[in-house]
Fold this protein.
Amino acid sequence: NMSITASYLVLAVVVARLLLKKAPKWINCLLWALVAIRLVCPFSFESALSLIPSSQTISVNTESVGRPFTIQTGVPVVDTGINDFMGDRYYEGVTVPTNTFANFTTVLSVIWLVGLIAILIYGLISYLRLRKRVGASLLVKERIYYCDNIATPFILGIFKPKIYVPSGVNERDLEFILEHEKSHLKRKDYLIKPLSFLLLSVYWFNPAIWLWYILLCRDIESACDEKAIKFYDDEYKKLYSTALLNCSTQKRIIMACPVAFGE
């Protein structure tokens, strides 16, 4: 139920995101935070103005042995079709194996758990591999390291985040790169992204949550850029954009580590 109601909210935020193209990008991040709260909290506040058709889409029916649950999406056509279909197959008088539905949900639970563990292992391995690549880095300033084994700058770390910069980056671009990465540090994005990845791991079976995670990461980057150039003129903004573009086109690289910022 939490997953389904969060899906409704994701769709609502996607629409709001299109309508708020000219608004500050941090507003988008705030809207995505509401989705995260919905994914964490087991309860919701209902009202006549709610965008969610039903907070309990799947309601468990404990009074009937034959019909284990009903669907209440808030869309009558959908509800009637599904519940009529279930009613023809689950009702008193029909002989079905004992605990058929319980066994089915047990299988689904095992599949969910395997997927959760697999994604968490992937995240851990990608983090350890990236840590190994930046093992031979040179400390230049506080939290800033030069590394020969990377092609694009990024932040790595949760409790003590560090900025890693390719050794070959030119001094002109370095100023703008550091401005971008320091904006991530000020906004505490190095905490937000791992926590978001953890929620994605729990709800990996829901395509809407993947959409939420992808768009959240994009909006985090946009909000970071917005903060970095907020008080500068157009000429600075052009140089800033060019510097980041130079970093992104040096080599074709995929930053798949969920706790690193290299997009």
User: Anything to note?
Assistant: The chain has eight helices and seven strands. Strands lie at 58-60, 69-71, 137-141, 144-147, 154-156, 162-166, 260-261. Residues 12 and 51 are 7 Å apart (CA to CA). Residues 62-67, 250-255 have pLDDT under 50 and may be disordered.
